[in-house]
Structure to design on (313 residues):
């Protein structure tokens, strides 16, 4: 297998996880969660979003959260935005990295932002201008890149066109997001491979949901295509708990568990992530989509632990 030595995991639980929960966590609790994941070794964390508080009341206080977290220089604290207003709020809250989002699907842009794809993109120029003036780094995200619940399959050219649009704006880091869990391994491999070949200077992320159980297989597929950056969410939060069949992002602790076994370095402590995920499960008050939380770790946790055991013996 083609295995990288290390991978970067972005913890998106504070944003993509908590935005779907009925239980709204306090500012203090969110701050503690973000500090905890950083203490567990996470180097990139999505702390919230600066979008309409009416649309996403769970994250209406991201401004306060941003001001309250302990900032470590080696850690990237990013927030999701969709327009100029979001960029303004991010700058005001002292955030230095945002993820500017557009959907690959026309219908999804309409339902999510109430604008057409062209309208969403037209707004990006102002964001880039404001960002440049204020030292705000902008990454891009293309949601429903692997399929849209309204439109089904998204033509590959449509995704590459959006990557091109971002690139021509000067965005060099782009997340391809499987927003509703429609991706499958051969598709993830092909899209990732083509995107990397066409845009060699872009750093790609994969954002995968486990709605239909394929997220881990999709990670492996992405890895085979050379992707080394993945989003994941503590306890597997995400998706909509009230939509039948919907489920969350791939669980951070499940991903770390697998990568530890495969000797792929993340710098994230699995035991600490499991503790955080347990706390989060208690916060939200329901069972979540995390296999390690449900099954627990086997005794010989990882090849590293196994090595250690063997050395001790
Ligand atoms: Mg998501």
């Amino acid at each position: 297998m083609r295995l990288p030595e290390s991978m970067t995991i972005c913890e998106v639980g504070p944003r993509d996880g908590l935005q779907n929960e009925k239980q709204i966590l306090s500012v203090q609790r969110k701050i503690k969660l973000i500090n905890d994941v950083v203490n567990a070794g996470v180097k990139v964390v999505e702390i919230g979003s600066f979008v309409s508080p009416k649309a996403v009341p769970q994250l209406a206080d991201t401004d306060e959260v941003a001001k309250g977290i302990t900032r470590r220089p080696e850690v990237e604290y990013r927030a999701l935005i969709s327009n100029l207003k979001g960029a303004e709020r991010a700058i005001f809250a002292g955030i230095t990295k945002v993820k500017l989002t557009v959907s690959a699907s026309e219908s999804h842009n309409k339902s999510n932002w109430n604008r057409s794809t062209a309208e969403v993109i037209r707004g990006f120029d102002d964001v880039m201008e404001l960002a440049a003036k204020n030292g705000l780094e902008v990454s891009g995200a293309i949601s429903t890149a692997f399929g849209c619940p309204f439109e089904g399959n998204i033509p590959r050219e449509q995704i590459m066109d959006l990557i091109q649009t971002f690139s021509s704006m000067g965005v060099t880091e782009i997340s391809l997001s499987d927003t509703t869990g429609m991706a499958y391994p051969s598709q993830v491999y092909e899209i990732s491979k083509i995107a990397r070949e066409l845009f060699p200077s872009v750093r790609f992320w994969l954002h995968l949901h486990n709605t239909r159980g394929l997220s881990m297989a999709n990670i492996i597929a992405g890895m085979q295509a050379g992707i080394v950056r993945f989003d994941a969410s503590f306890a597997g939060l995400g998706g909509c708990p009230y939509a039948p069949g919907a489920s969350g992002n791939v669980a951070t602790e499940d991903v770390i568990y697998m990568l530890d076994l495969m000797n792929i370095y993340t710098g994230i402590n699995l035991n600490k992530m499991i503790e955080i995920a347990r706390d989060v499960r208690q916060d939200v008050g329901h069972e979540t989509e995390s296999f390690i939380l449900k099954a627990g770790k086997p005794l010989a946790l990882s090849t590293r632990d196994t090595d250690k055991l063997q050395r001790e013996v």
Q: What stands out?
A: Residues 16, 177, 179, 207, 209, 238, 249 surround magnesium ion (CB under 6 Å). The mean pLDDT is 92. The longest helix spans residues 270-284.
